[in-house]
Amino acid sequence: MTMVDLKLHVNGKDVETAADPRESLLEVLRGRLGLMGVKEGCGVGECGACNVLVDGLPVDSCLTLAVWADGKCVRTIEGEARPGGELSPTQRAYVEAGAVQCGFCTPGLVMTTSAFLERNQHRLNEITREEIKRAHAGHLCRCTGYEMIVEAVEQALGREVKGAGECRPAPSLAEKHLTNERR
Amino acid sequence: MFDLRELRRARSVAEAVQLLADHPEARLIAGGTDVLVKLRHFDGQFRHLVDIHNLPEIKFARLEGDRLMVGAGLTFAETIDSPLVKEYIPVLGEACATVAGPQIRNMGTVGGNIANGAVSADTAAPMLVLEPELLVSGPEGRRHLSIHGFHTGPGQVALKRGEVLFGFSFDLKKLAGLGACYYKYAMRSAMDIATIGCAAGVKMEGGVIKEARLALTVAAPTPIRCPGAEAAALGRPLNDETMKNILAALEGDIKPRTSWRATREFRVRIIKALAERMMRAAAERAAGRVQP
Lengths: 183, 292
Ligand code: FES
Ligand code: FES
Known about the structure:
- The complex is a heterodimer of chains A (about 180) and B (about 290).
- Chain A has helices spanning about 25-30, 90-95, 105-120, 130-135, 145-155, 170-180, and strands at about 5-10, 15-20, 50-55, 55-60, 75.
- Chain A is α+β, with helices and mostly antiparallel strands.
- In chain B, a hairpin with a 2-residue loop joins strand 6 (about 135-140) and strand 7 (about 140-145).
């Protein structure tokens, strides 16, 4: 199919890339932009490994046509850490709670947690366990048994949350990944 | 890469109708949460697509006189968050909240959930209770369809080829005083397909049931209303005896079958349990309900 030009705002940075209209957002993020933190598990919207934030909302990038993200703000795990590599509050909570084992599900989950915290900033102290589980129900994890993940989110609740659905300024890791990936 | 041949973007409903007329082999894609899964499994029927994803024209919820108009392009998440849906037809938002998981609810649309004809569609039972008119645009212009009879078979609906379902129109006068609720019975509390879905709508007057609407999914080859059970409820107080009669009549309304998810016998039990619970809960809501 004829290639189309896409303009994306990825992890705080404007990115232009050509893409095949048949490609999923997952394929463009990994294959064309080199963002390997986005994982493909099932490819059919069941597991959440491919979850990224599009305009602040968690979506399965395997079930999103790349052309649909044109002009949108996309956030992946590569944009989570602060400039200089300092972990985001969500990432720190995952590490400290032992919520990462093989790590395959982690990038998707962390993005969901960050979006969840940003959306609920005004009522962080009212959030229930049940609500946390519901918000993370679109993710499978084969290792942790989920308890540690819920605990990580609970720990992250007590911390400062940034972003509120906005793209954060470009962190260094993403900059490294995003250069020269146009094919 | 998806096994696509053509992807044509429509910038309006009119353009979508035109594109479908010009390319009879093409199907619509909106949220993509069904179509892209089918394409992933190499379903040849979806290789030519007309794309109405995120089309602003069909993302609305607004009042027009006595009617609430809801765009087919609203995602489940947008429907849940809509203040008008919360105020006038909360049962629809509650049903949307039971669909799959958060990521799917951010993509999948209410229109797609009805137009794809799935017998397990979570919005089908509440829609059958709320009785919106379906707003359809096609080569011969616009027409309104009833939700009753819209589902014609498993995965089949009354849309003609080339027609686009672009919205729902709810008659708020007829909904005044109606208490409604929905329950999805599934194996898991998220990321699952309904084993049985049940919605009820009840109006009470002077201690008796003035109107009863009972709808089920996966209880027959299509989502259904239950005329027998509804007739058994009319004009009666909602007590144990009435409930017994409703459930007895209900047996004539349903045709559940055995699948790997559940046996026929199990489904019948769940249907009765849900019907009773939803009728009672709907009646309670009706009692507490402020008339809009
Ligand atoms: S890879 Fe996208 S949901 Fe599993
Ligand atoms: S840590 Fe291995 S799948 Fe979640």
